[in-house]
Fold these 4 entries.
Entry 1:
Amino acid sequence: LIDDKLQLTSIKSIKTIKAPTTCVYNLCTAEPHTYFANRIAVHNKLGKTFVNLSKDKDPKRIKWSLDGPNWRIARPGICLEGRCINESCPADKQLVVINVGIRKFDLLVDSARTSRCPECTRYVEPITCAFNNCCWRWEGQIQSADGVEPTVLSGNWKPADNAYHRFEENVNGLVTWLQLILEAKSK
């Protein structure tokens, strides 16, 4: 559906997931479109859903634990978190920590090769981030709703001490990022 008119568009790739009574299609097209698959309206939109860093809520400071599974080990710098969905992985259905480190990280560009489960190395969809033992900042563009002009935002450098400073997705909420650059440097 483009400009309230049903139009055809070429599909660049298709991924089909079959469950007992459900077919889920992940279609990729050049631009965001609404189209129909098996009589179901599907919307393909640009951007990535991730925790809202733009709220005036600091990340939650979490003290280190002396025990925990390997997939929760955090190294200094940027850490992403997402849920592993590999049924044969020990971390299946668990939030895993993806260590990005001390560097500049583009969420939309670098996630495909970086956002991997530390146990099984399969792709994990990142939903939030944390920082530790570094100074960090972010910049990006969010889209609050379809048809609304994107907003360019950024955060100033902040210190993260020797603890896990995590953005809580249930407190900050999730937004669609059209661009998000996370940056960490040594203190």
Entry 2:
Amino acid sequence: MDGTNGAGAPGPSGRLEGGPFGVELRIERRIEASIELVWANLVEPARLERWIGTWEGDPGSGSVRFAMTAEGADAPWADTRIHACEAPHLLDLETAVGDDSWRLRVELLGADGVTLLRFAQAAAHDLGVDLASVGPGWEYYLDRLVAAATGGDPASIVFEPDYLPGMGRYYGELR
């Protein structure tokens, strides 16, 4: 993980920057695992479910259905469009979230058994993205991904109070 708040909990690391989606929330993780293993944790349903959720459907069709099962067994399914899937380096998705849609991108760079993960979400305020809750949420899920990819237990990472409200103010003040 990228830092702590002094109590052993992760510290916020996201930032807003311009990118292909306009204003983007960007968060990075350095993962002590091969790029192939990190990629597998992003795209294989059984591995994905350990840290965030699962998907069903035919990715070759350009769309799947995704459920954030880490939110509970009754998590709703969301239609998810695949804009790019270039193993093991790029995953670019758009997923329905209520009446909105979220554009998400994960880029991976690997060398010597270490992977740099770069996450981005379109974050312009007119897109309905509440950074005070979305930012801590992605920090939480990316830390769960790190745990899954490195042999740890994603369930040992607790959302409240470390991520929210712990990181809410930081993300709420990002501009």
Entry 3:
Amino acid sequence: MFFAVFAIALYGVVIKPNIVKKVIALSILGDTANTIIIFLGYRTIAKPLPPIFPERTFSRDVLEMLLSRTVDPTPHVLVITAIVINMAVIALLAFLAIQVYRLYGTLDFRKVIKMRGW
């Protein structure tokens, strides 16, 4: 299901000529990629634990238990970072879309290219 949403968002970024639709599709694309990364980091064990040492002693048994039952925090940290970066990119693109509309009076990318003479 996530790959279908990913493909639809990619279609919106590549095919749609409207800049606002491209920005919305890019936002959906980033959110879908983040969701896929979170699901890749999920562990299917009975009772997953947070990666926190329960005791101050670092015996072999405690370390083996932690390695076998704890959730890997790396995907979650990467997703939090990606969310912040995605938000900044979307804000920048929204600002650029406003400026394009002020200058050219349209949000259609094809019309802007024709007006620029490219």
Entry 4:
Amino acid sequence: MKSIFAEPTQSELTVRKINILKSPKKGGSSDMDAIPYIEELGIQIFRNIQPIQFTPNINEHIHRWAPYVQGFSASFVQSILDQYKEDYNYPVVLDPFAGCGTVLVQAKLNGHTSCGTELNPFLQFIANTKLNCWDVFPNYLLRVYNDLPRNNRSLAPSFLKSDSHFSKAVLHNLEVIKGGIESIEEKKEMQRKVKDLINLAFSSILIDCSNLKRTPCLGYCKNKRVYDTAPFVLLDKKIREIANDLRLIQSQYRNFINRESKVILANAMDFEHINKFDLIITSPPYMNGLDYVMNYKIEMGWLGFVKNHKELKRIKDEMVVCDNVSKGLIKEFCRSGLTYSNDWIEKIKAEIEGNIEKRGSYRRTDMPYIVHKYFDDLYKVMKKVVTSLNSGGRFILVVGDSLIADVYVPTDLLIAKIGLDLGLDVEKIEKARERRSGQIRSYKLRESIITLLKR
């Protein structure tokens, strides 16, 4: 039967929409496209659906102190620790992409020593505060907070568009709070810890007080209504939430309060660990995922971790590459010559390049080299941390695959292949979640858990 709705003409369609309509990947899946790679590796992908996203953490003690869109769930980390508790009596845990510290906090709650690296100074601050302020007395936190002066207004960071991010009254109240926090003395360690907790709480309310939303990328929310008093109301609620969690920690986890747990501000691609680890649990940035710097620029600016956009770009350029990096960075990578590759990467690059040529238009013509740099970056990280993994230790990664210019990129299987190149065994790969391609919504992608074993 002919549709009563007129089909759009070619002139009414953008090039991107035309390519989506013509895509051979419509209705397809990564499970089918992965078969040749799986057969070459000689492995299987097991179905093990489970909650791996950060969302459940909003109800978890400590984890809920600061929102983190792309982290994974505390329950997932706990399942890993439980799974291997017979193999390692007192495991030392590493997360090379620490983020807001989910892995390390959960390890500490189990009494395990842990360490992480994080390149974003704001996230490193959040993780360290969540890990190392367990000994702050709740009443002391509340007393310092309640005594904050309201006559020391500190202006919003000048490089951010704060006048459009916040209403005039809300912005004024945030500046009042910021000034009050800055007046807290730091002569003693406990004063510094309380100031860190209040700064953490302050950072956690900024987006809720703004005209913005993070779902998951940062953007304006047209119909959002924020009351003038929101900064005071939300901060008060967050401080009391933290105080309640501290009471719980000091009653139920007091034996673990001083357990060594730290996050080092460093690039995992070149950081040399002096300690040895039994478990490495992490989730590297996804290739077509979030911009982990620009998505947190509000918090980074307000807490003073960056002073301008140049500093934001410098941090972004040092991170594992994603698909919105500068063209100059990719050109520099191509000129360097000293890169990791394998036959799969070269095949995928050639297919992406060929498809871009056929299309005649694509948002990034250098996408083949972005893909190459992504896996080169991960190789560098894996090479560094594998040397610090004890014999019998496990390297567990949560990753998502991609569809780029109608070319399937099996991220999990490529990481497994890199692991083999580094002398690790592929113990198992599990499909934890199904998701959709951002370009071809009918194409099914997967999120996987890769477990690599060091003999």
